[in-house]
Amino acid sequence: MANEELIYRITRAVYGRLGAKADERTVEALVMDVYRAIEPVVGGGGAAPAAPPEGGADRIIVSVFGVDHPGIVAAVSQILAEARCSIVDINQTVVQGKFAMVIVADISRAEESVTALKERFRGEGERLGVRIYAQREDLFNAMHRI
């Protein structure tokens, strides 16, 4: 079973137990704890490893939503640059004054944990008056299959 499929199954089980309104951070932490505990056992069973470029743990999805104003892209990009993360893909749009952006970033050389990056994005989002969400790509993909 590929890593993404295993993470998907664990995520589905956690949401099944906690309910759809469960805190996303709590679910993510539980899924990763369970995955880390069982991966050495099930990962060594001859299953082909998941391809890192397509949904691996080395990438994060950063989503930004709010009212458009100057400096949003610069602030989010600055956090990634300071953490030594590379932007793999970026898409942003403004619709009737509403700003939306999605960034896929490579975190393989990051000097901060994903948790630390999330906290920096949360704080910067508050400062900018926008919502910034960040999640590992493998978890993002698994959670959005539910």
What is the averaged pLDDT score? 82
Helix-strand sequence: HHEHEEHEH
Portion of residues within helices: 40-55%
What would the principal axes of the Cα set say about the shape?
Answer: globular
Segments where pLDDT lies below 50 for 5+ residues? 44-53
Summed up, the helix count is: 5
How would you classify the helix and strand content by structural class?
Answer: alpha+beta
Radius of gyration of CA atoms, rounded to a whole number: 16 Å
Report the sheet-strand fraction: 15-25%
N- and C-termini, Cα separation: 18 Å
Outline the biggest β-sheet: 4 strands, antiparallel
Number of strands: 4
Describe the strand arrangement of the main beta sheet, using strand numbers.
2-3-1-4
Brief account:
The protein is an alpha+beta fold.
Describe the structure.
The protein has 146 residues and is an alpha+beta fold. It is built from five helices and four strands. Strands 2-3-1-4 form a four-stranded antiparallel β-sheet. A hairpin with a 2-residue loop joins strand 2 and strand 3. Helix 1 crosses helix 5 and helix 3 (72-82) packs antiparallel against helix 4 (114-128). The longest helix is centred in the first third of the chain and has 20 residues, at 24-43.
Essential attributes:
146 residues, alpha+beta, 4-stranded antiparallel β-sheet, 5 helices, 4 strands
How would you summarize the topology of this molecule?
Layout: H1 3-18, H2 24-43, E1 59-67, H3 72-82, E2 86-95, E3 98-106, H4 114-128, E4 130-136, H5 137-143
Antiparallel strand pairs: 1-3, 1-4, 2-3
